[in-house]
Design goal:
about 140 residues; mainly alpha; globular
Length: about 140
């Protein structure tokens, strides 16, 4: 099943792909050593798919909001086993989303809950330069 889920990640952006990615995210809600790479790939693919949807198919962003996928990001980042690899990808995913979403209503919805505030207030491991760099880039988006 893990192999099948990973193959779905390689599909072209679409609503069906986001549904598959969401399913993988739900099934892998807890970060472990065994699913860390899969979660990183899913996060990366979610960003690509949501940006594609913002520009090509509004149903994609609607699904992203409807399923509260942004809350999964927060859930992942708050886990003790999140680790540098996953945290870095999560910050990169958020940077990519906020830098590339063009629809003002979509940006409003991304900012309308406390998830962004919670991520800003999260105690990241700033001894890791890559995490610090992505965190600073994330903060700069709001200046």
């Amino acid at each position: 099943p893990l192999y099948t889920e990973a193959i779905k990640v390689l599909q072209s952006p679409s609503l069906d792909l986001l549904k598959s990615l969401y399913s993988v995210l739900v099934k892998n809600a807890i970060v472990t050593d065994h699913n860390r790479t899969l979660i990183v790939e899913v996060l990366r693919s979610i960003a690509e798919t949501v940006i594609w949807g913002d520009q090509n198919d509004p149903r994609v962003f609607d699904f992203f909001l409807e399923k509260g996928i942004q809350s999964y990001f927060l859930s992942i980042i708050e886990q003790p086993k999140c680790g540098t690899y996953v945290c870095t990808q999560l910050l990169q995913t958020l940077n990519i989303l906020f830098e590339n979403i063009r629809n003002e209503t979509s940006i409003y919805f991304l900012l309308s809950n406390n998830h962004v505030n919670s991520i800003i207030c999260h105690e990241f491991d700033f001894s890791d330069e890559e995490i610090m760099a992505y965190y600073i880039s994330f903060l700069k988006l709001f200046l």
